[in-house]
């Protein structure tokens, strides 16, 4: 910068809010503005005959220029230096000094033009941020150390990608090291059959920022499959939003539940055997009679043949239902189910046992189909259990009513008996394992019934009056079928 260039800046120099000064080549103030006086805490006279503190500041500037950082006279870019300065009040300032050389007309350096910026607040904020960052890193390190000590499997994910798994988590999915799971997608861990559950949870979180508990079928790295139950929560991990999932391996529990259901199904099949034998005997008697008529007839009678075929199909249905009831179900596939058709099949299956006890099952249903989404065999188990309980509560004959109604996308199925009824204490104890009001009962039937209904998104309630009867009401969501208009 030339001297004639600088002369036009004299007004700006004196009026600027930024501290400015001309410093001699040997490191003393030649000229300075009032903003610099305010910044350094001295008047102009005190700065031109500097105190030790100001002298230290000038020495730092002069040393910076002389030790390998001297400015070429042709330079247009100022050199910058950051120094600490102790204000007369004792407060330490962090100053940023910009230094430019001022030359005469022939390019000979005369003095230096300097600008002083107070960066104290910024530096304090940077220091505080660094302290916070260090504190967060320490907390995160402690947090991860805590997770490592947890016996429950833990996975941390962001946008469906695994960022961390503790030792128990690695053991859950049979990973030998953290490197095997870092970057793995949750879609690779959760089984394909549970993708819809995963998708619905993500939609729910995006809508109301909640997730709740969940049960998944997962694929381990050794190709083994497990059932896990867990909960997911949002956290801050590595400075960004992430999600922590805490899980529990419930594979043994699921298998045990399956064994309990199978045990109850076998028990039910055994108890139904007498009724089924009675139910099969009736069509067999009809078939035998019509076969005798056919033998005595001179020509074939299509009506007799049709009746025989109908009775054989009835027997086939009853036998098939008994086989399904006793055979383990290895696959569970939810699909649309016609509720009224399902109840008709259950009623047909139970009519034989009802007849042996002088009971009648009386369905009171609508005349149109009601569709629900579920597993037909499990739902049949529910209504077989409810009808069986109703029969066992009635020792002197009577009627069992099945009422079916719909309310705003919900089907309600009531099984009402005319039996002995239950006390309030007995009702409250229902569903507890091995609690039963029967002499030979296991107490598992109602517990299994509850689990099946809850797994179908429904609920079950009980009303009872002693010596008048009990009503079990199942509520379950309905679905829209292709034939049903969408409002």
Q: Which secondary structure elements does this structure contain, and how are they paired or packed?
A:
Elements: H1 3-7, H2 10-15, E1 19-24, E2 29-32, H3 34-40, H4 44-48, H5 52-66, E3 79-86, E4 92-103, E5 109-118, H6 120-149, E6 154-158, E7 161-165, H7 167-172, H8 186-189, H9 195-208, E8 213-219, E9 225-237, E10 240-249, H10 251-296, H11 302-326, E11 335-338, H12 339-356, E12 359-364, E13 371-374, H13 376-392, E14 398-406, E15 410-416, H14 424-429, H15 444-455, E16 459-465, E17 469-477
Parallel strand pairs: 12-14
Antiparallel strand pairs: 1-2, 1-5, 3-4, 4-5, 6-7, 6-10, 8-9, 9-10, 11-13, 14-15, 15-17, 16-17
Helix pairs in contact: 10-11, 10-12, 12-13, 13-15
Structure explained in plain terms:
The chain has 487 residues and is α+β, with helices and mostly antiparallel strands. Strand 6 and strand 7 form a beta hairpin. The strands form four sheets. It has a five-stranded antiparallel β-sheet, sandwiched between helices. Strands 7-6-10-9-8 form a five-stranded antiparallel β-sheet. The two termini are 80 Å apart. The chain has 15 helices and 17 strands.
């Amino acid at each position: 910068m030339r001297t004639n260039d600088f002369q036009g800046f004299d007004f700006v120099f004196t009026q600027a809010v930024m501290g400015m000064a001309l410093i001699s080549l040997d490191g003393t103030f030649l000229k300075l503005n009032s903003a610099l006086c305010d910044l350094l805490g001295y008047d102009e006279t005190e700065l031109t005959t500097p105190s030790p503190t100001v002298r230290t500041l000038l020495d730092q500037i002069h040393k910076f220029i002389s030790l390998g950082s001297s400015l070429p006279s042709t330079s247009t870019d100022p050199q910058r230096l950051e120094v600490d300065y102790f204000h007369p009040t004792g407060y330490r300032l962090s100053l940023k000094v910009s230094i430019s050389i001022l030359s005469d007309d022939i390019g000979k350096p005369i003095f230096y033009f300097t600008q002083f910026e107070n960066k104290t607040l910024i530096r304090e904020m940077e220091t505080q941020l660094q302290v916070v960052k260090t504190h967060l890193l320490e907390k995160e390190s402690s947090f991860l150390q805590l997770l490592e000590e947890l016996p429950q499997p833990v996975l941390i994910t962001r946008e469906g990608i695994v960022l961390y798994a503790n030792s128990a988590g690695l053991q859950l999915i049979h990973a030998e090291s953290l490197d095997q799971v870092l970057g793995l997608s949750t879609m690779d861990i959760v089984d394909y059959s549970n993708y819809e559950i995963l998708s619905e949870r993500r939609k729910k979180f995006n809508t109301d920022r909640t997730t709740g508990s969940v049960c998944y079928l997962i694929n381990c790295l050794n190709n083994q499959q497990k059932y896990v139950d867990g909960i997911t929560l949002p956290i801050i991990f590595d400075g960004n939003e992430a999600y922590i999932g805490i899980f529990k391996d419930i594979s043994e529990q699921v298998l045990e539940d399956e064994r309990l259901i199978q045990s109850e199904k076998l028990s039910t099949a055994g108890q139904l055997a007498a009724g089924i034998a009675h139910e099969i005997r009736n069509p067999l008697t009809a078939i035998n009679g019509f076969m005798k008529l056919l033998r005595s007839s001179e020509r074939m009678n299509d009506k007799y043949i049709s009746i025989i075929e109908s009775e054989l199909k009835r027997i086939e249905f009853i036998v098939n239902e008994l086989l399904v009831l006793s055979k383990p179900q290895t696959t569970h596939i939810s699909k649309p189910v016609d509720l009224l058709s399902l109840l008709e099949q259950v009623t047909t299956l139970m009519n034989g046992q009802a007849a042996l006890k002088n009971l009648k099952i009386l369905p009171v249903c609508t005349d149109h189909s009601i569709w629900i989404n579920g597993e037909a065999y499990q739902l049949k188990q529910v209504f077989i259990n409810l009808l069986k309980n109703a029969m066992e509560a009635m020792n002197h004959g009577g009627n069992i009513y099945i009422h079916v109604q719909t309310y705003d996308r919900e089907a309600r199925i009531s099984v009402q008996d005319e039996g002995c009824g239950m006390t309030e204490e007995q009702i409250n104890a229902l569903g507890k394992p091995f609690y039963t009001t029967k002499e030979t009962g296991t107490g598992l039937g109602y517990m299994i019934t509850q689990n099946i209904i809850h797994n179908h998104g429904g609920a079950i309630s009980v009303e009872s009056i002693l010596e008048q009867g009990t009503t079990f009401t199942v509520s379950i969501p309905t679905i829209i079928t292709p034939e049903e208009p969408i409002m």
